[in-house]
């Protein structure tokens, strides 16, 4: 499987951000069961499942083991995987992160942080190209304070647009969508339009749909990611409510 | 133990970046043994041990288990811990990362990425304050391409200095060193001086000493980090050579 096939599926990403406090006495076993059920039930209406690495790491080594198990299971359900780790480091360290996610799980995507520069992102792009994967580079994030560095004026434009243009040049020309995707918060729809204008070939991952107040956005290559709103609708694990929430989101996105 | 006590120790950080290919048939067991021996032998001449999370993640859940075990062992040797993860994410996700490292291991530090803004860094500072820890925010990184965003001109100065000044203001006034440290590559000594000038209270973590070509730098609050040069001197695990390399670095740093 190649991650780019996700772009031909319904433009909705299930964000799996497990919260042990919502899962009874044996939280890891309960998270495993619920996440497997949710992925299986929702898969036909999803382009990908996104695992938020922070919540698995907070559960220790067993949590990381569960993450790797769920990532393998997602592929059994035919579901492309996005590892949401916002990783980024220099040279050989970046290669180790690429190894952990893009090489170990061919056809998957990883979210990455651009602050260290293009040379630090290169090992991720190399691994994505070699293993049918993709990266989503943080461009404009969904949080209220994202402007701190991202909106600084660079040659008369916000830094995030300068970055988006540089990433689009880095990807180069070609047919269809490329492997250098970008993260733009659904909470900033005008930023989504601005980034799309300078980076027509980039798949755009839009987190913040639902719980953070972002509305689903329609358009080629726009992947709407809902985490709490879809995985814990009403603030708790509830598969029936998740299916209803998915139907509503898909109505807004594809009808 | 409070991480700030590290500033009263010899200004040398042992970077543990395990490479399984250097460790025979049962690499995890061998890495465990060698890292424990190295920490015990080198501890008296170190201010901290820095674990590069990427290399443990590349080893899967067992690798992460080993990381947590070595972090606990470091404390038994009286050695402050820096988790080198360059983490960073929005709100509740940042809290999950803080939980995984700063709360679970009181008195430890975590490297963090500033691209998402101060609101995204706030949960890390909160956890550091509550648990005797610290953060090291990426300011100017050691890689050759670090200028891509970090050197962009903002009000006539490179972005990284603008960031360093904002972080110094964010930390506030007070006595002695604060909990908002910064990462500045030893490969850019002029950047170290520039950051120190605008952020007099920030502990500065200087990676890139040795293998990346950075020379050790002396000065209050400067923590020199050597990974390959100290953990794998001559390109392989060798405790005797590590002790010699440490003696040479300390000679340059404290005599």
Automatic annotation (TrEMBL), chains A, B:
Keywords: Decarboxylase, Lyase, Pyrimidine biosynthesis. InterPro entries: Aldolase_TIM, OMPdecase_AS, OMPdecase_type-2, OMPdeCOase_dom, RibuloseP-bd_barrel. The keyword Transmembrane does not apply. Residues 11-243 form the Orotidine 5'-phosphate decarboxylase domain. GO terms for molecular function: orotidine-5'-phosphate decarboxylase activity. The keyword Lyase applies. Pathway: Pyrimidine metabolism; UMP biosynthesis via de novo pathway; UMP from orotate: step 2/2. It catalyses: orotidine 5'-phosphate + H(+) = UMP + CO2. Coiled coil: none annotated. One of its GO terms (biological process) is 'de novo' UMP biosynthetic process. It comes from the Bacteria. Its EC number is 4.1.1.23. It is an enzyme of class 4 (lyase). Belongs to the OMP decarboxylase family. Type 2 subfamily. This is Orotidine-5'-phosphate decarboxylase. It comes from Thermus oshimai JL-2.
